[in-house]
Design goal:
- The protein is of the alpha/beta class.
- The chain contains six helices and six strands; from the N terminus they run E-H-H-H-E-E-E-H-E-H-E-H.
- Strands 1-2-3-5-4-6 form a six-stranded mixed β-sheet.
- Helix 4 links the parallel strand 4 and strand 5.
- Helix 1 runs antiparallel to helix 2 and helix 5 packs across helix 6.
Length: 199
């Protein structure tokens, strides 16, 4: 493929100085006063949020997360002028069903990584060969390594059209779609628009 339809290999490689700067900004968080109640009726409790921020600022191992991504086939392609990042894992099972899975908000493809092995290689996880899927895991525009939209036009319907274009670009004319949270809304937006063409 060439031009705008080109599918380019991708590898996560965040410069160390960016990781250090992000940690600096996270640990420099200015905190509000503690809530005036002892329960969650006023929202997230300060102590719990501080513990979460401490974890992200000091304990989270980004290089381990990066290695998890780089253990999988990652790609980038341009759709409607925007770079779309995705993971594409093909099953070794002959009759595997293609499936596009969309993460939630505020989330990322990380929330889907534990599904890759069981869905692409079910026989290694106690399943049957007929349970296998070819997986496509894109990052929604503005998330992860996908490009950031310059306008508000990238709603669920636009993403649904982009996901259909991505699947056709990968050679999948028939496929299923799954999503959680906002990803479920994108999966739902796909269904009425493309059901006739894909069934």
């Amino acid at each position: 493929m060439s031009g705008e339809t080109e599918i380019r290999p991708f590898r996560a490689d965040i410069p160390e100085e960016e990781v250090v700067e992000l940690r600096r900004r996270v640990t420099a968080t200015r905190w509000p006063d503690r809530e005036t109640v002892t329960d969650q009726s006023q929202g997230a409790q300060l102590a719990k949020v501080q513990e979460l921020v401490r974890y992200w600022g000091t304990d989270y191992d980004w290089r381990n997360g990066e290695a998890k991504l780089n253990a999988l086939p990652q790609f980038m392609t341009q759709i409607d002028g925007l770079d779309i990042y995705f993971i594409h894992v093909q099953s070794a099972h002959e009759h595997a069903l293609p499936m596009i899975m969309t993460h939630g908000w505020p989330g990322s493809v990380f929330e889907l990584l534990k599904t890759v092995g069981p869905l692409t290689d079910p026989t290694a996880h106690g399943g049957q060969a007929e349970d296998a899927f070819h997986l496509v895991l894109p990052s929604m525009p503005g998330f992860g390594f996908s490009g950031k939209p310059a306008s508000t036009v990238w709603g669920p319907e636009r993403m649904g059209r982009a996901w259909d274009e991505l699947m056709r670009r990968l050679g999948y004319e028939r496929y299923v779609s799954q999503g959680g949270d906002w990803g479920g809304i994108v999966a739902h937006a796909l269904a009425p628009s493309f059901a006739d063409a894909r069934t």
